[in-house]
Amino acid sequence: MKTIKPLVEKAKNTSEVFKTLDITVSNAVLHDMADALIEYQNIIIQLNDQDIANSKAMHLSPLAIDLLLINSERISELAASIRSLTTKTTLLNLKDDKDVDIPSPSTLAIIYESRPNITAEAACLAFRSGNAIVLRGGREAFHSNTAISSILCDVLDQNGLPRELITLLPTTDRVSMTELISLNNLIDYVIPHGSEGLVQYIHQNSKIPVLNRLPDIRNAFDL
Q1: What CATH number is attached to the domain comprising 107?
Q2: What's the CA gap between 80 and 109, in Å, rounded?
Protein backbone atom coordinates (compact mmCIF):
# COMPACT_ATOMS: atom_id res chain seq x y z
CA MET A 1 0.00 0.00 0.00
CA LYS A 2 1.51 3.31 -1.11
CA THR A 3 -0.44 5.58 1.22
CA ILE A 4 -2.88 5.16 4.08
CA LYS A 5 -4.38 8.62 3.61
CA PRO A 6 -7.57 7.49 1.79
CA LEU A 7 -8.40 5.11 4.65
CA VAL A 8 -7.86 7.82 7.25
CA GLU A 9 -9.94 10.29 5.24
CA LYS A 10 -12.86 7.84 5.26
CA ALA A 11 -12.56 7.42 9.02
CA LYS A 12 -12.55 11.20 9.47
CA ASN A 13 -15.60 11.65 7.26
CA THR A 14 -17.65 8.94 8.95
CA SER A 15 -17.08 10.41 12.42
CA GLU A 16 -19.86 12.88 11.61
CA VAL A 17 -22.46 10.15 12.32
CA PHE A 18 -21.80 10.60 16.03
CA LYS A 19 -23.44 14.03 15.89
CA THR A 20 -26.84 12.33 15.56
CA LEU A 21 -26.24 8.84 16.98
CA ASP A 22 -28.48 8.19 19.97
CA ILE A 23 -26.81 6.78 23.10
CA THR A 24 -29.30 3.92 23.27
CA VAL A 25 -28.29 2.88 19.76
CA SER A 26 -24.57 2.99 20.55
CA ASN A 27 -25.14 0.94 23.70
CA ALA A 28 -27.06 -1.67 21.72
CA VAL A 29 -24.24 -1.84 19.19
CA LEU A 30 -21.70 -2.38 21.99
CA HIS A 31 -23.76 -5.28 23.34
CA ASP A 32 -23.81 -6.74 19.82
CA MET A 33 -20.03 -6.35 19.61
CA ALA A 34 -19.53 -8.17 22.90
CA ASP A 35 -21.87 -10.96 21.75
CA ALA A 36 -20.09 -11.24 18.40
CA LEU A 37 -16.67 -11.62 20.02
CA ILE A 38 -18.06 -14.53 22.03
CA GLU A 39 -19.88 -16.05 19.06
CA TYR A 40 -16.88 -15.94 16.76
CA GLN A 41 -14.18 -16.58 19.32
CA ASN A 42 -13.06 -19.75 17.54
CA ILE A 43 -12.04 -17.65 14.53
CA ILE A 44 -10.15 -15.20 16.73
CA ILE A 45 -8.38 -17.98 18.62
CA GLN A 46 -7.49 -19.82 15.41
CA LEU A 47 -5.85 -16.73 13.92
CA ASN A 48 -4.24 -15.93 17.26
CA ASP A 49 -2.68 -19.39 17.18
CA GLN A 50 -1.05 -18.39 13.90
CA ASP A 51 0.35 -15.22 15.49
CA ILE A 52 1.61 -17.23 18.47
CA ALA A 53 3.35 -19.72 16.18
CA ASN A 54 4.98 -16.90 14.19
CA SER A 55 6.11 -15.20 17.39
CA LYS A 56 7.68 -18.39 18.70
CA ALA A 57 9.50 -18.74 15.39
CA MET A 58 10.80 -15.19 15.91
CA HIS A 59 11.97 -16.26 19.41
CA LEU A 60 9.93 -13.65 21.26
CA SER A 61 10.11 -13.83 25.04
CA PRO A 62 7.55 -15.84 27.05
CA LEU A 63 6.21 -12.55 28.44
CA ALA A 64 5.70 -11.14 24.94
CA ILE A 65 3.92 -14.30 23.85
CA ASP A 66 1.66 -14.19 26.91
CA LEU A 67 0.68 -10.59 26.08
CA LEU A 68 -0.16 -11.78 22.59
CA LEU A 69 -2.28 -14.72 23.70
CA ILE A 70 -6.04 -14.68 23.17
CA ASN A 71 -8.07 -17.53 24.68
CA SER A 72 -11.69 -18.13 25.62
CA GLU A 73 -11.25 -16.74 29.14
CA ARG A 74 -9.68 -13.52 27.91
CA ILE A 75 -12.38 -13.05 25.29
CA SER A 76 -15.07 -13.49 27.96
CA GLU A 77 -13.36 -10.87 30.14
CA LEU A 78 -13.09 -8.54 27.17
CA ALA A 79 -16.77 -8.95 26.30
CA ALA A 80 -17.74 -8.22 29.92
CA SER A 81 -15.63 -5.04 29.89
CA ILE A 82 -17.28 -3.88 26.68
CA ARG A 83 -20.74 -4.43 28.15
CA SER A 84 -19.71 -2.40 31.21
CA LEU A 85 -19.31 0.65 28.96
CA THR A 86 -23.08 0.71 28.46
CA THR A 87 -23.93 1.09 32.14
CA LYS A 88 -23.97 4.88 32.10
CA THR A 89 -26.67 6.97 30.41
CA THR A 90 -24.32 9.81 29.49
CA LEU A 91 -21.68 9.89 26.77
CA LEU A 92 -18.31 8.63 27.95
CA ASN A 93 -15.91 11.59 28.14
CA LEU A 94 -12.39 10.42 27.43
CA LYS A 95 -9.49 12.13 29.18
CA ASP A 96 -5.81 11.41 29.27
CA ASP A 97 -3.72 11.54 32.42
CA LYS A 98 -3.06 15.26 31.91
CA ASP A 99 -6.85 15.74 32.21
CA VAL A 100 -7.19 16.71 28.55
CA ASP A 101 -10.78 16.35 27.36
CA ILE A 102 -11.27 14.63 24.01
CA PRO A 103 -14.23 16.31 22.31
CA SER A 104 -16.71 14.29 20.28
CA PRO A 105 -16.69 13.69 17.43
CA SER A 106 -12.94 13.39 17.02
CA THR A 107 -10.82 11.02 14.99
CA LEU A 108 -8.31 9.16 17.12
CA ALA A 109 -5.33 7.01 16.17
CA ILE A 110 -3.72 4.42 18.40
CA ILE A 111 -0.35 2.88 17.62
CA TYR A 112 0.33 -0.21 19.69
CA GLU A 113 2.30 -3.44 19.95
CA SER A 114 1.36 -7.01 20.89
CA ARG A 115 -1.81 -7.24 23.04
CA PRO A 116 -4.57 -7.76 20.43
CA ASN A 117 -7.18 -7.09 23.12
CA ILE A 118 -6.29 -3.41 22.63
CA THR A 119 -7.92 -3.63 19.20
CA ALA A 120 -11.31 -4.26 20.80
CA GLU A 121 -10.77 -2.08 23.88
CA ALA A 122 -9.65 0.98 21.93
CA ALA A 123 -12.34 0.55 19.26
CA CYS A 124 -15.16 0.20 21.79
CA LEU A 125 -13.95 3.04 24.00
CA ALA A 126 -13.73 5.31 20.96
CA PHE A 127 -17.17 4.25 19.74
CA ARG A 128 -18.82 4.72 23.15
CA SER A 129 -17.25 8.18 23.49
CA GLY A 130 -18.44 9.22 20.03
CA ASN A 131 -15.15 9.10 18.14
CA ALA A 132 -13.85 7.32 15.06
CA ILE A 133 -10.57 5.46 15.47
CA VAL A 134 -7.68 4.35 13.29
CA LEU A 135 -5.77 1.36 14.66
CA ARG A 136 -2.18 0.53 13.79
CA GLY A 137 -1.12 -2.68 15.53
CA GLY A 138 2.15 -4.56 15.52
CA ARG A 139 3.13 -7.27 13.07
CA GLU A 140 3.23 -9.93 15.80
CA ALA A 141 -0.56 -9.61 16.31
CA PHE A 142 -1.61 -8.84 12.74
CA HIS A 143 -3.88 -11.86 12.22
CA SER A 144 -5.53 -11.51 15.63
CA ASN A 145 -6.10 -7.78 15.14
CA THR A 146 -7.58 -8.39 11.70
CA ALA A 147 -10.02 -10.98 13.05
CA ILE A 148 -11.18 -8.80 15.93
CA SER A 149 -11.56 -5.61 13.90
CA SER A 150 -13.42 -7.45 11.13
CA ILE A 151 -15.93 -8.84 13.63
CA LEU A 152 -16.51 -5.39 15.15
CA CYS A 153 -16.88 -3.79 11.72
CA ASP A 154 -19.39 -6.45 10.70
CA VAL A 155 -21.49 -5.44 13.72
CA LEU A 156 -21.33 -1.80 12.66
CA ASP A 157 -22.45 -2.79 9.17
CA GLN A 158 -25.32 -4.91 10.51
CA ASN A 159 -26.54 -1.91 12.50
CA GLY A 160 -26.46 0.43 9.50
CA LEU A 161 -23.31 2.24 10.59
CA PRO A 162 -20.16 2.81 8.50
CA ARG A 163 -17.43 0.22 8.95
CA GLU A 164 -14.85 2.98 8.71
CA LEU A 165 -15.66 4.14 12.24
CA ILE A 166 -13.19 1.40 13.22
CA THR A 167 -10.30 1.32 10.76
CA LEU A 168 -7.45 -1.14 11.18
CA LEU A 169 -4.56 -0.27 8.89
CA PRO A 170 -3.77 -3.28 6.67
CA THR A 171 -0.04 -2.75 7.09
CA THR A 172 2.38 -2.73 10.02
CA ASP A 173 5.42 -1.19 8.34
CA ARG A 174 7.26 1.82 9.76
CA VAL A 175 6.37 3.94 6.73
CA SER A 176 2.65 3.73 7.46
CA MET A 177 3.22 4.71 11.09
CA THR A 178 5.31 7.70 10.05
CA GLU A 179 2.62 8.79 7.61
CA LEU A 180 -0.14 8.32 10.16
CA ILE A 181 1.41 10.66 12.72
CA SER A 182 1.85 13.32 10.04
CA LEU A 183 -1.86 13.54 9.12
CA ASN A 184 -2.70 16.36 11.52
CA ASN A 185 -5.49 17.59 9.27
CA LEU A 186 -7.29 14.24 9.60
CA ILE A 187 -6.35 12.84 13.03
CA ASP A 188 -7.12 14.87 16.16
CA TYR A 189 -5.16 12.85 18.73
CA VAL A 190 -2.70 9.98 18.62
CA ILE A 191 -2.14 7.50 21.47
CA PRO A 192 1.03 5.38 21.63
CA HIS A 193 0.89 2.13 23.59
CA GLY A 194 3.90 -0.15 23.75
CA SER A 195 7.62 -0.08 24.34
CA GLU A 196 9.49 2.95 25.58
CA GLY A 197 11.11 3.26 22.16
CA LEU A 198 7.75 3.39 20.40
CA VAL A 199 6.32 5.95 22.81
CA GLN A 200 9.40 8.18 22.51
CA TYR A 201 9.34 7.98 18.72
CA ILE A 202 5.70 9.10 18.61
CA HIS A 203 6.29 11.97 21.04
CA GLN A 204 9.33 13.17 19.11
CA ASN A 205 7.93 12.88 15.59
CA SER A 206 4.17 13.31 15.71
CA LYS A 207 2.57 16.38 14.15
CA ILE A 208 -0.62 15.39 15.99
CA PRO A 209 -1.26 16.07 19.70
CA VAL A 210 -0.14 12.99 21.66
CA LEU A 211 -2.17 11.58 24.54
CA ASN A 212 -0.17 9.70 27.13
CA ARG A 213 -2.50 6.74 27.44
CA LEU A 214 -5.78 5.14 26.55
CA PRO A 215 -8.10 4.87 29.59
CA ASP A 216 -8.45 1.39 31.01
CA ILE A 217 -11.74 0.07 29.65
CA ARG A 218 -12.58 -1.43 33.03
CA ASN A 219 -12.20 1.93 34.80
CA ALA A 220 -13.20 4.33 32.04
CA PHE A 221 -15.95 5.94 34.10
CA ASP A 222 -13.71 6.51 37.10
CA LEU A 223 -11.47 9.06 35.43
Answers
A1: 3.40.605.10
A2: 24
